[in-house]
Amino acid sequence: MIDFKHVTLEYPVTRTLALDDVSLNIGKGEFVYLVGHSGAGKSSFMNLVLKRALPSRGEVRVAGEPLSAYRGRRTSILRRRMGTVFQDNLLLPHLNAFDNVAFALRVTGVPQREWPQRVTAALRTVGLEHKKYALPLQLSLGEQQRVAIARAIVGNPPLLLADEPTGNLDPDNSREVLKVLQNVNLRGTTVIVATHARDLVETFRHRTLTLRKGKLVRDDPYGGYAL
Amino acid sequence: MKYHLRQALLAMRGNVTATLATLMTMTLTLLMLGFVLLLTLNVNRTIEQLEGQVEVAAFLAGDAQDEALLAQARAIPQVRDARLVTSEQVLTEMTQDTPFARDAAQLVGNPYPDTLRLRVARVEDTRAVATQVAALPGVEDVEYGAGYVDTTVRTLSAVRLAGYLLVGLLLLGTLFNILNAVRVAMYARRDEISVMRLLGATRGFIRMPHVLEGLIVGALAAALALAILTPAYLSLTERVQQLAPVFPVVRDTSTLAPLLGGVACLGILIGLLGSVFATRRYLQELE
Ligand SMILES: Nc1ncnc2c1ncn2[C@@H]1O[C@H](COP(=O)(O)OP(=O)(O)O)[C@@H](O)[C@H]1O
Ligand SMILES: [Mg+2]
User: Inter-chain contact A109–B194, Cβ cutoff 8 Å?
Assistant: First the structure.
């Protein structure tokens, strides 16, 4: 699914080495934590997979193809195959939960008659079917984040990227969100969760990749957290 | 498509000043362009008519080599055609206009010299041809009927040139206005746009509302310009026809319709191209 070969990412202006010679492979259907202190390079990893950044050295392959193969229109096709959830949920404030989720279908050209059924199914997956007419401000942060997850999965992407999805949440909401992500994974979606929260990783154990100052220092197939 | 249209209208409403500024400069530009084109059309028509009329007359000396001079005159490149009119023929012509000319001629002899009558291909060349012919040996004097043609042509060409320059500047101004309006509109939507990009919207999809916005403004400006220009022109030319019927004003639909239609199309095209260009640049900056 995702293949990094000696990937280095150096941001040109500041010359920071965000990722340093990282090699790894994430297979189909896996659930993977990406952990490390703030500034360790987790978001940079996500940005590479999303093709929001290009590697300075090495090669990034997504679904068997190098990033350079995703050009122009294909960049948007690539992003349609990945759901994304960030610390800031990036919901559109003027749209209710249903419309926020449907927005993902709209911008990818899914015919309108398919929306009700698919959006409802996605909201059901995150347990918010009953809140579909609520505006983001009328939802708790945890609920907002779950709407964001619904929006990320409504297009049935094979890959879900979550960058600090619980960063703004209290422990209960964090657990809830993580449960939802697990459910998504159980339906066959590959899930990558970047986080710096130790307790989170220990709630549900999964393969854990540890980054430190841009280097991949540990790849623990059964979980555990070492910084 | 309905979605894009609604987004376009929202963007225009959210950003009324920039939209109105664009609309106004664009309308002004199209009005100016229409004015200059109509003026040119009428000037050309007038010049054509003058060209048909303006003659250079070269009066020959009694002992001049008429035929040789005729050949020399014909050899001047700007001369379209030249013919020799003998003094007798001139007298006959004159008699037709003023019957007592012949009586006078019987008293004092035929006062008219042999004359070369030249038609000039382009009216601007009249003076040059006159000077050249005057310099030929055996030519005593030269006259060209329309000294005023010279200044008229010159003034009109200058006005026309100034008009085109102005239109050029206005076009530039319009383009900048569109660029600015689209920029502001896209900036106002920047959060939505970044979400759209993450969700995998194509560039075309993101740009569509703004391209539509440009198209709508272009079409509105075109409609406004035509709504002002057409009645204004028709009433003006009607007055001219009444007051100065000699001017061959153009009023036939078959000539006016394509010209005005062209102006309208240009408006729509500028709106479209401007917004296509602006959206492309904005998205490139985001990369
Ligand atoms: N756009 C950027 N330009 C320059 N430096 C950046 C940029 N984004 C991140 N960095 C730097 O790269 C390093 C890794 O950042 P990041 O990947 O965001 O870490 P994390 O997500 O693990 O907190 C940090 O030192 C950060 O300051
Ligand atoms: Mg980060």
Answer: no
Same domain, B45 and B59: no
Let me know whether B175 and B265 are in one domain.
Answer: yes
Nearest CA distance, A104 vs chain B (angstrom): 6
Range of the domain at B137: 55-144
Q: B15 vs chain A: nearest CA distance in angstroms? A: 18
Structural domains of chain B, count: 2
Closest ligand 1 atom to residue A43 Cα is: 21
Q: List residues bridging with B96 in a β-sheet.
A: none
Probe target for ligand 1 pocket from A20, A43, A50, A56, with the most ligand atoms within 8 Å of CB: A43
Give the span between the Cα atoms of A37 and A19, in whole angstroms.
13
Where in chain B does DSSP place strands (E)?
55-60, 79-85, 115-120, 139-144
Q: Which helix (H) or strand (E) holds A209?
A: strand A207-212
CA-to-CA distance for A97 and A99, rounded, in angstroms?
6
- B174, B274 contact by CB (below 8 A): yes
Question: Closest ligand to A209 CA?
Answer: 1
Q: Looking at the CA of A9, name the nearest ligand.
A: 1
**H/E stretch holding B173:** helix B147-188
Burial class (CB in 10 A: 0-12, 13-18, 19+), A167: middle
pTM score above 0.80: no
**Contacts with B228 (C-beta within 8 Å, 6 or more apart), sequence order:** B27, B31
Last residue of a domain, one of B119, B144, B169: B144
On whether any CB of chain B is under 8 Å from the CB of A95, the answer is: no
What residues in B contact A73, CB-CB < 8 Å? 202-203
pLDDT tens per residue, range A110-169: 999 999 999 999 999 999 999 999 999 999 999 999 999 999 999 999 999 999 999 889
**Predicted confidence (pLDDT) per residue in B145-177, tens digit:** 655 666 767 777 788 788 888 888 888 888 888
